[in-house]
Design goal:
single chain; about 675 residues; Glutaredoxin; 5-stranded mixed β-sheet
């Protein structure tokens, strides 16, 4: 990426890699601030809000084409207050204005370029605009001139549009149904209906769901796992495993270095959008762990380990935290770091396996994608761990390692790291590998030391270059609570449960809506956004409300807090019509629905060596259970209270009734 040192704007004082990428544009960019609207009102200028992220390909393209153009910049500087926001540093701002753009145009994406009145209300926007008009897209200069003219000559009409749009955003917040009471919150018949509707969208040839572009949709796969567990539905397990296998065969999985790209631009998983995001890899690790618990396929162990190696090698900060993302581009070309010419491969690979190698990875002389080659296969990838194949892949990996690398977004984000902790915990549960447990513990300790503000008792959302930014959002706390829950399940350390309860209390105090049911994305004390949004859809990441619902249900059982379990049930009851109709958009919610339909089973162990039984217990896929082990009676946890033991004793508890004590974990597993 070129940098013109002749220009420097206010972004030079920021720490976000994305904002720093724009610090030498001739556009006089400013960061978001709590005085923004007052400044805009005083100068009576419209605001151009441009939102992107460091690994965003089209953000880079628009910067090169327009934001580095001095003529364009002069016009922007004269007529607008120009604001740059990193969507990963301020997802709250991105959520508001992305919803506005989707309401205006029916679609969204990044870069998000949206025009606001001085009071912050949006009135016009789009995503990428080219330097010259093309394919029914106006040029960026035409857009700027059109907006400037409308602001000067038709202000009343813009105000009217913006007022209506802002009201629409407020009305679009999820609301409770009129009735929140139901005798039966969730049934197995309805859960089966949810999975049937998910399968209606299944690609039975290539796995996954729907057509291109194709995302992993890990939550839908996990729903299928749970339907197989509960109802022994073969269609569910067949498609879930097919989807995972096709992904790890495809180019979305990095066959040389491990890790997964964000999505595939085609239905076959061949050609990825090459950016690698921390949260995608965290979620996929969780799915691979469950797949291994169910199938015991060794290949899943290998893919988990290679992805873990990728994270340690390329996103690990060396002390416990993990960076946000790797760019899709290098040297200004998407995927250049990861792709190969036929001749390059021929020069590197042993002639004895060359023909088999290029056939296996679909390599063509003229390229299998945009005149170059992506390594992908339509065969099972067990072959990749054969010695000759490992040697060949290592040669390619070493050759690739000396190329110019994609840029690293070195922000460390609380919620994404918490998601990764959950992934590591699931990996340890499935495999018993201590590396994964130790990585999870190290990560939570790093976040507690670097993102927690002890004096004010809150977490920050992210940190870069040692500078924390923004107080944490709902998703951050929701994922953090899940991380503490999972850490307890693999370690037996009940202090993690106390932390989960502490932060759930915090969320209930600071994020709950006026109806007392759902939760705002921003805390009540945050004052620098136009409106407070409530999110319900599960997208590439689970919604904060879905995560909180799951946490309330789990912790309500653990701490015998009926108000929390009832709160979770009311959330599910309220979201149920949407969940039943559009289950692909509510996949994380569906997992709580599943647990409510089956009822939760608590597996409790007390005794001097019960921790030793955790690997045996956790190796099994038991999605309807809560697992609590303690070496001593624990008054803080009702499930452990009055359970004294000299020797190990195990209990199965359901509906506030526990079985007689059993001396071995095997008896628990036999009687679940």
């Amino acid at each position: 990426m070129s940098v013109n040192k002749n220009f420097t704007n206010d972004l030079i004082k920021e720490t976000s890699p994305y904002l720093l990428q724009h610090a030498h544009n001739p556009v006089q960019w400013k960061p978001w601030s709590d005085t923004l609207f007052a400044t805009a009102t005083a100068t009576d200028k419209p605001i151009l809000l441009s939102i992107g992220y460091a690994a965003c390909h089209w953000c880079h393209v628009m910067e090169r084409e327009s934001f580095e153009d001095e003529t364009v910049a002069d016009f922007m500087n004269t007529h607008f207050i120009n604001i740059k926001v990193d969507r990963e540093e301020r997802p709250d701002i991105d959520h508001i204005y992305m919803d506005a753009l989707q309401a205006m145009t029916g679609s969204g994406g990044w870069p998000l370029n949206i025009f606001l009145l001085p009071n912050g209300q949006p009135f016009y926007g789009g995503t990428y605009f080219p330097p010259q008009a093309m394919q029914n897209r106006a040029s960026w200069m035409d857009v700027l001139k059109g907006v400037q003219t409308a602001f000067e000559r038709n202000r009343d009409k813009l105000v009217e549009q913006a007022t209506h749009l802002t009201q629409h955003l407020l009305n679009s917040n999820i609301k409770a149904l009129q009735s929140q009471e139901a005798e039966v919150v969730a049934t197995n018949d309805e859960f089966q209906l949810i999975t049937q509707r998910i399968l209606q969208n299944a690609d039975t040839q290539w796995g996954g769901f729907g057509a291109a572009p194709k995302f992993p949709q890990t939550f839908s796969i996990q729903v299928l796992f749970r339907n197989y567990f509960q109802n022994k539905d073969q269609a569910s397990i067949v498609h879930a495993i097919r989807s995972i296998d096709k992904m790890i065969q495809g180019g979305i999985y990095d066959h040389l270095g491990g890790g997964f790209s964000r999505y595939s631009v085609d239905a076959m998983w061949q050609a990825p959008h090459f950016e690698k995001m921390l949260y995608d890899n965290a979620l996929i690790l969780g799915v691979l762990s469950e797949a291994y618990q169910i199938s015991k396929k060794p290949i899943y162990l290998n893919v988990m380990q290679s992805t873990f190696d990728f994270l340690q090698r390329e996103l690990y900060n060396g002390a416990g935290g993990y960076y946000a993302a790797l760019d899709a581009d290098s040297e200004g070309v998407e995927g250049k770091f990861y792709t190969w010419s036929y001749d390059e491969i021929k020069e590197i690979i042993d002639p004895a396996i060359f023909d088999a190698f290029i056939a296996y990875y679909q390599v063509e002389q003229n390229g299998n994608w945009e005149h170059t080659n992506i390594l992908w296969t339509q065969n099972d990838i067990e072959k990749e761990w054969e010695p000759a194949w490992q040697k060949a892949l290592k040669k390619l990996f070493d050759k690739r390692a000396v190329r110019i690398r994609p840029a690293l977004d070195h922000k460390i984000i609380l919620g994404w790291n918490a998601m990764l902790i959950v992934g590591f915990c699931k990996m340890h549960a499935a495999t018993g590998n201590e590396l994964y447990k130790n990585a999870a513990i190290e990560c939570i300790q790093w976040m507690e030391e670097n993102l927690y503000h002890k004096d004010a008792n809150y977490f920050y959302h992210s940190i870069a270059n040692g500078t924390p930014k923004a107080t944490a959002f709902l998703d951050d706390y929701a994922n953090l609570i899940q991380a503490y829950i999972q850490l307890q399940e693999i370690t037996g350390n009940t202090n993690y449960l106390m932390q989960a309860k502490k932060w759930m209390d915090y969320v209930l105090l600071n994020f709950i809506d006026e109806e007392g049911l759902y939760f705002y994305y921003t805390a009540s004390y945050q004052k620098d956004v136009m409106i407070r949004k409530k999110e319900s859809y599960d997208g590439a990441q689970p919604s904060g409300n879905a995560l909180i619902c799951s946490g309330l249900h789990y912790l309500g059982h653990v701490f015998d807090l009926a108000q929390w379990t009832m709160h979770a049930e009311k959330m599910i009851y309220s979201i149920r019509p949407s969940l039943l109709q559009y289950p692909g958009s509510f996949g994380y919610w569906a997992q709580s629905f599943f647990q409510m339909s089956t009822g939760m089973t608590e597996l409790v162990g007390v005794g001097p060596t019960v921790y030793e039984s955790l690997p045996t217990l956790n190796a099994h896929f038991l999605p309807q259970t809560i697992r609590i082990m303690s070496q001593v009676e624990e008054d803080r946890i009702p499930l452990l209270k009055d359970k004294k033991s000299v020797d190990n004793q195990y209990f199965i508890c359901k509906n506030k009734t526990c079985s007689p004590p059993m001396p071995e974990i095997g008896l628990i597993l036999a009687n679940i």
